[in-house]
Amino acid sequence: MKALDVLNNHRTYRNFDEEYQLSDEELQQILQASCQAPSWMNGQMYSIIVVKDKKIRKQLVELNPGNPHMLKSSVFLVFVADLKRTQKVAEHYQVDYPINQGIDPLITAITDTALALENAVVATEALGLGSVIVGSIRKDIAEVSKLLNLPDYVFPVAGLSIGKPIVEMRVKPRLPKEVVIHYDTYQDYDYQLIEDYDETMETFAEARETKLWSKKFADYFGRTPNQKIDEFLKINKFFQD
C-alpha cells in the first residue's frame, strides 16, 4: 500500500484470528521498519521485546484483563525506553551517568520509543494486517517489568498486538484541524469546536465508548495520576528520591 493511504486509513483492531500465524518474514519486516524510525542523534534509545511465549502473554492478560488480544493476537511486542545501553557506554568510558538529575533523558528515550512504535504500526498495516497499541501495560508497570526481565534504566512504554483482523473497523474521526494545527504560533480556539467534536463522536457511535469524548478526559485527568509510575522511575534510577 502507498504510505499516505496507510496513514490516512489507520484503524485500531482488537479482534484477531487466533489461528493466523504471522510469518517470520512478516515479523522481520515489521521489526526492520520499526528500527529505521528517526531517533535523536541516532541514539535509538529503545528496545523491542517480541513476546511469543503464550504463558507470558497469558500473565500479561491476567494483569490487564481488558486487553485479551495480548494473548489472542499473532504476536505481542513491548516497546521499552532503553537507557541501559547508554549506561553501558558510560561505564565503558568511565564517565558519570547523571540521568536521574533531570527529565530530559527520559523524554528523549520515550520519544525514540514512540517513533519506533509508530513505524511498526504503519508497517503492520502496509502488510494488510491490524494492530492495537496497549498503553495500559504501565498500569502494573513493576509486575510487567519483572515478567519481561527488564533491567534498571529500562521503562515499558507500550505494547502492540499484531494479527489478522476478524472484525472490520471504521476510520475514526479526528479533532477539527483548528484545534490541532497551528501556524507560526499557538492559536487559541473556541471551545465550541470541542463540543462539535463531541457530537461527531456521538454520531460515530463506537460501541466501546460510554462517555462524551471531552467527559472521558475530564474524568481521566481529574484523578491522581498512576503513582506506580513515579515509584518505578525512582527505583529504576530514572529519578532521584
TrEMBL record:
Q: Does the keyword ATP-binding apply?
A: no
In its UniProt record, a GO molecular function of this protein is:
oxidoreductase activity
Cite a single Pfam family from the UniProt record. Nitroreductase
**Protein's recorded name:** Nitroreductase domain-containing protein
- Report which superkingdom the organism of origin falls in: Bacteria
What the entry lists under InterPro entries is as follows: Flavin_OxRdtase_Frp, Nitroreductase, Nitroreductase-like
Q: Which residues form the Nitroreductase domain?
A: 9-164
Task: Tell me its family.
Answer: Belongs to the flavin oxidoreductase frp family.
Give the transmembrane ranges: none
Keyword annotations of the record: Flavoprotein, FMN, NADP, Oxidoreductase
The protein's matches in SUPFAM superfamilies, at most eight in alphabetical order, are given as:
FMN-dependent nitroreductase-like
UniProt key word Ribonucleoprotein: no
The species is Enterococcus devriesei
